[in-house]
Amino acid sequence: MNIYLTPDGKVKLEKELKELTAKRPLMAQRIEHAKELGDLSENAEYHDAKDEQGMLESRIREIQGTLIQGQVVKKNSASGKISLGSKITVLVNGNQKSYEIVGVNEAAPLAGKISSESPLGKSFLGHKEGDEITAAVPAGKIVYKIIKVE
User: What is the pTM of this model?
Assistant: First the structure.
């Protein structure tokens, strides 16, 4: 599976990785402190710290893998067509909405960041200002008029 990132998405992942990596020494101290509290088999603080360390390391590995395998895609604004990284404004049911087309790992629909692989994202790709598209979404088919592409 290809992993696509916008330049902003890559920067955010790098920032999160730096912050999580900085937490490693504190986590090690917390585990050492918990060990000093006695019997590890019944030491809830130790087990909580170890669980948290596992989640921290898992997220670090996930981000590292994404950054290694991910391909940063710059939007093709010269063509005027919607592509990964495009910011668009559409008219839907008489309301204006703004979206940014992002990679799967960056998707946050409530924040207006829709995946290029989602049904709605796929419907927008390759279109330009003035186009009307009909997208099949969970609520049914909805018509979107593209009024701006950045």
Answer: 0.78
